[in-house]
Amino acid sequence: MSHPTQPPGAPVVRREGREKVTGTARYAAEHTPPGCLYGWIVPATVPSGHVTATRTADALAVPGVHTVLTLDNAPRLKEPDDPVLSVLQDDRVPHRGWPVALVLAESLEAARAGAAAVRVEYRTTDHDVILTPEHPGLYTPEEANGGHPAVRERGDADAAFAGAPVRIDATYTLGGLHNHPMEPHASTARWADGHLTVHDSSQGSTTVRDSLARALGIERDRITVVSEHVGGGFGSKGTPRPQVVLAAMAAGHTGRPVQLALPRRYMAAIVGHRAPTVQRVRLGADRDGVLVSVSHEIVTHTSTIKEFVEQAAVPARVMYASPHSRTVHRVTALDVPSPSWMRAPGEAPGMYALESAMDELACALGIDPVELRLRNEPAAEPDSGRPFSSRNLAACLNEGARRFGWHDRDPSPAARQEGPWLLGTGVASATYPVLVSKSAASAHAAPDGSFRIGVNATDIGTGARTVLAQIAASVLGTPQENVRIDIGNSDLPAASVAGGSSGTASWGSAVHKAATALVDRLAGHDGPVPPEGITVTADTEQEAGEESPYARHAFGAHFAEVAVDSLTGEVRVRRMLGVFAAGHILNSRTARSQFIGGMVMGLGMALTEGSTMDPVFGDFTESDLASYHVPSCADVPDIQAHWIDEDDPHLNPMGSKGIGEIGIVGTAAAIGNAVRHATGARLRTLPLTPDKLLPYLL
């Protein structure tokens, strides 16, 4: 019997929506077993040095305080797979905010009071926390984040640039940025009969389980990590963070369940950040705007704990045709918290610099910025020479220009004004790679005709449950309501993290393969489904390990209109439009939410989000949402996202590309270019706050 099914791309309402809005969705810090202790971290108050003594008597005297873990009594770990997890193991303080003790108490209030009563003594050493373009510690690493070579050269970029009739040589500076998901990082751990169960706010509980097993020196089958509902991550929860190791250690040490939730003001030091970058972009072109040389060189910082190099120059290897190219990453290790992934790492800061420089080139040439980009479309990926599986950037630019009314604008700067407001428009391109990781899934047919899919995917607010049900239902030929989805538990078939815009492609491919195998099994099965049902499993290790002969990327075009107050320097975004080419869109409702969410985050990058490093104390001064300003709904009166549905057979069974991150990539540049058009002032440091604009307006 056939069942009516909704076609892929249908705007299916997310499955967990009612649970979230009614408060029945349970997050990591809302699982509180009987007898639970509450933890509070004691952070280091010096930027570099060693702990010489930890005085805990006053803390233990606080009513309700149970235990204080220090480097003297904390359980010993094996060598973790990530050095940031090696907490309370030695006396070194690699940066301010590093955990140096953990107070455990019968209540959260007692734990906080106890932590305030701990007295830590240090032997300090000289510290260095400020990134400069000529820092003496800069070096060229072997790789940037993601396994990209740190340096790539084609032809002779310097000579071609020197001989170009039109040249742009500009440096763009971005400070540190912070992920700040709505739900801070939290873990609840308990041991029972030698088995550890952890509810963790993470983007991948399989990864957390494996890291805990290595750090604790136990078998993986003795650990279950649950990440059923996660209130955002934006990369900061892509790998385990210290709180999950501390919670597991403390639960083992005390014999009681332990819950540890990070205060927001601790997150800047503990859960990673987007590293600051100084980016020099040099573009050489002929007088028709055809690029002859592209050079993108960045410097950034990492910590003394481990090397993490923001791959900001990598997008320049993808975007525009040029016979000569040079892309370089250099880094210095400072006494700062370890940087990590933040939404669209590399692409977001790198495309801000590249797309701002392209706008500067368009202005120098007197060529429309959309037309300039179209004139430099490559026939194949410039860096590798591989053909694109699909590349519809030109279609995005043209469709976006039509929808936005781009060609009606006066290209002259500072030409439009309404009262005190200067009006301007800007455009920028966007790109993000198609990434995929191996995953496994199970598909189960029950006697009542229903189906159950198991895959350890993580829904960080993107609607993963919903789209995976749609994928399974389309293969099984059943309404998606007839498919149950089990995710967020490391006892399920192992799956990759929700990161790199790879979740749907990775998990969906495994679900598609398992569902297909189940259809085949049922087709060959005689008689009714047995009482225990029929289950098949499948994994995509082979498919994910195959190198594609194609360059696979999503593309997009961002358009923005801004109003700049000529008296105060305030920038208001009046409208934003994004048009994307991201394969086949599997759920139009959740896709639009992801695109718009990324664009709003890009607006924050452009106008409000800024973080400064205090040279004396060695920490980020904007450590909460009162000082680190994220945009609200009122900051974006009119925001639209559209897409061009692509038929790309070189991706995965669904024909989909990742969409979670491309929305942020071009937004900041489009807004910055619009501010230049409105005012005639080219600012090269984000965020574009009034104090930076005012000197150009007076």
Written description of the protein model:
This protein is an alpha+beta fold. Helices cover 26% and strands 25% of the residues. The strands form 6 sheets. A 7-stranded mixed beta sheet has the order 3-5-1-14-11-12-13, sandwiched between helices. A hairpin with a 3-residue loop joins β7 (143-144) and β8. The mean pLDDT is 97.
Q: What is the number of E strands?
A: 27
Integer average pLDDT: 97
Radius of gyration: 26 Å
From the N-terminal CA to the C-terminal CA, the straight-line distance is 74 Å
Strand content: 15-25%
Largest sheet: 7 strands, mixed
Share in helix: 25-40%
Structure at a glance:
With 698 residues, the protein is of the alpha+beta class. 26% of the residues lie in helices and 25% in strands.
SSE order and pairing:
Elements: H1 17-22, E1 37-43, E2 49-55, H2 57-60, E3 65-69, E4 92-93, E5 99-105, H3 108-117, E6 119-124, E7 143-144, E8 148-149, E9 151-154, H4 157-163, E10 166-174, E11 186-192, E12 195-200, H5 205-216, E13 223-226, H6 242-254, E14 258-261, H7 264-270, E15 277-285, E16 291-303, E17 324-334, H8 347-365, H9 369-375, H10 393-404, E18 416-418, E19 421-433, E20 440-445, E21 451-454, H11 464-476, E22 483-486, H12 503-523, E23 534-539, H13 541-545, E24 553-565, E25 571-581, H14 588-607, E26 639-643, H15 662-665, H16 667-679, E27 685-686, H17 690-697
Parallel strand pairs: 1-14, 10-27, 12-13, 16-17, 21-22, 25-26
Antiparallel strand pairs: 1-5, 2-4, 2-6, 3-5, 7-8, 9-17, 10-15, 11-12, 11-14, 15-16, 18-19, 19-24, 20-21, 20-23, 24-25
Helix pairs in contact: 5-6, 8-16, 11-12, 14-16
